[in-house]
Amino acid sequence: MRLCFDLVKFSICDVPGAPGFLKALHTLARVLEGRDQYPVITLNYLYALIVFALLFAFRHLLQPNRLLDFMADISYPFYIMHSLIGYSIIRFLIDQGVPFYLGSFFALCFVCVISYAVHRIVELPSITFGKHLARKYTPRPP
Q1: Could you read off the pLDDT of 27-55 as tens digits, one per residue?
Q2: Using an 8 Å Cβ cutoff, are 78 and 115 in contact?
Q3: In the predicted model, is pLDDT for residue 113 greater than 50?
Q4: CB atoms within 10 A of CB 111
Q5: How far apart, in whole angstroms, are the C-alpha atoms of residue 108 and residue 125?
């Protein structure tokens, strides 16, 4: 579904991030009207959107940070791994009598290690291979 509005000869969809922002505003309106099924979860997404928007707006003030750069590098593998592996580890450890916060910390560390391995072993070689294919099959100017 493409959520955008055409205003005269200008499409708001031409603004980067505008469709997602419009969807967020729509979702916020549903929460405020009391029609959202999971208002707490939706508000958490709204908080994340606000933090992301502020960081993006003031990105010129931010200095490079090794930890954030590392997390950015492993963000996609982390996204893929955290739900299945992370929640399974937490559940297993809780069943073994480990406190929730300790199990969550262990799961976070384990998922970070697995995500880094996937980043190095799968993601980086795939990016290199994709660049090779793009160079090979991109038409050259005469």
Answers
A1: 666 666 666 566 666 677 778 888 888 88
A2: yes
A3: yes
A4: 22
A5: 25
| Residue where the block lists tokens 């916060």 | 101
Domain boundaries defined on the chain: 1-62, 63-142
**Which residue carries 């969809």 as its tokens?**
13
Which residue type, as a one-letter code, is found at position 17? G
pLDDT of residue 10: 43
Structure tokens at 73: 């590098």
Amino acid present at 43: L
- How far is Cα 2 from Cα 112, in angstroms, rounded to an integer? 34
Q: What is the largest CA-CA distance in the chain?
A: 69
**Residue 51 φ/ψ, nearest 5 degrees:** -60, -45
Q: Distance between CA 104 and CA 101 in Å, rounded?
A: 5
